[in-house]
Amino acid sequence: MSISIALFGAGGKMGVRLSKNLQGSSYDVRHVEVGEVGRQRLRDELGVECCPVDDALKDVNVVILAVPDSLIGKLAAEISPKLKAGTMVMTLDAAAPFAGHLPKRPDLVYFVAHPCHPSIFHPRVHLEGDPDYFGGVKAPQSIVNALMQGPDEAYALGEDIAKTIYQPILRSYRVTVEQMALLEPGLSETVCATLLDVMREAMDEVVSRGVPADAARDFLLGHMTILSAVIFKQIPGQFSDACNKAITFGKPRLMRDDWKQIFEHQEIADSIERIT
User: Fold this and answer.
1) Could you give phi then psi for residue 145, rounded to 5 degrees?
2) What is the value of pTM for the model shown?
3) Looking at the structure, do residues 152 and 217 belong to the same domain, yes or no?
4) Which of 156, 175, 194 is the last residue in one of the domains?
5) Which label site among 71, 76, 125, 255 has the fewest CB atoms less than 10 Å from its CB?
6) Which residues contact 143 (CB under 8 A, 6 or more apart)?
7) pLDDT band at 113, cuts 50/70/90?
8) Radius of gyration (Cα) for the chain, nearest Å?
9) Mean pLDDT value of segment 172-185
10) How many domains are contained in the chain?
11) Domain identity same for 143 and 166
């Protein structure tokens, strides 16, 4: 007997990605989408029709909430009374579970799975004419998974579904919800996205000071490649003395001494509260 999955938000941007990867799998997928645009998208791109909520939830084994973080708490509260004991509820991000937005149903299984996205060093990401920067199409990516609540034997099912919806998979890691929150929003958004945004501002600044825009972009992206390869030990090597001196001066000029406090539990909680 196949495992049934009710996929909420199936016609959204992320939902369609998941729907495509679930198509042809061993899972019995019931697509749920409230918006007509999303329902039509599923018809056009996958040839599937959506189910009414009650039909989708009838004796279902797994519910995937492919909806924005701000809607997960409300949606989970609405469907929770309709779920039988032992049903797995899967979210695609740690924010709502970390914030305590899932219903207090100790008889349900809560599982969180999030993609790492393809590495900038993987050649498949940059294939000319057919790049896959996001992942889930052709470029392999790793995933992180957390069994937040439920028997340990439920992890295998959650991981298998995660490997299906995010395929092709490079590696799969088991973490806690708290660790996943350190990774996102902490590492990936508060740190990485913020610093990349600063780098873009820096590029715009040198352009405003007379450097040709294309030259500045090529110069920055090229240096990002080799500097990243060295600093993340993708290749053997070391920075020049001049570069090391620039880092020694630049880091205190750009970063507060206490910047690592953004990984403290309350800082992460505050960040997630703003998101959700």
Assistant:
1) -130, 145
2) 0.94
3) no
4) 175
5) 255
6) 113, 114, 115, 116, 162, 163, 166, 169, 171, 172, 173
7) very high
8) 21
9) 98
10) 2
11) yes
Mean pLDDT computed over every residue of the chain: 96
How many Cβ atoms sit within 10 Å of the Cβ of residue 56?
22
Residue 95 has pLDDT above 80, yes or no: yes
Determine the Cα–Cα distance for residues 175 and 101; give it in Å rounded to an integer: 19
DSSP β-bridge partners for residue 174: 145
Statement to judge: residues 79 and 165 lie in one domain: yes
Which residue stretches of the chain are H helix?
13-22, 36-46, 53-57, 69-79, 95-98, 155-165, 177-181, 194-208, 213-231, 241-254, 265-275
pLDDT of residue 126: 77
207's tokens: 């352009």
Identity of the amino acid at 170:
L
Q: d(Cα 229, Cα 233) in Å, to the nearest integer? A: 6
d(CA 276, CA 262): 18
Domain, as residue range, for 255: 183-275
How far is the C-alpha of 61 from the C-alpha of 16, rounded, in Å?
Answer: 20
Region 63-89 average pLDDT = 97
User: Which of 132, 148, 175 is at the close of a domain?
Assistant: 175
Instruction: Kindly state the percentage of the chain with pLDDT values over 90.
Output: 95
Sign of CA dihedral 167, 170, 175, 180: negative
246 shares a domain with 143:
no
* CA atoms of 250 and 244, how far apart (whole Å): 10
- C-alpha 65 chain-centroid distance: 13
Same domain, 197 and 139: no
- DSSP one-letter string for 116-149: ----TT-GGGG-TT---SS-SSSS-EEEEEEEEE
pLDDT at 42: 97
Q: How confident is the model at residue 125 (pLDDT cuts 50, 70, 90)?
A: confident
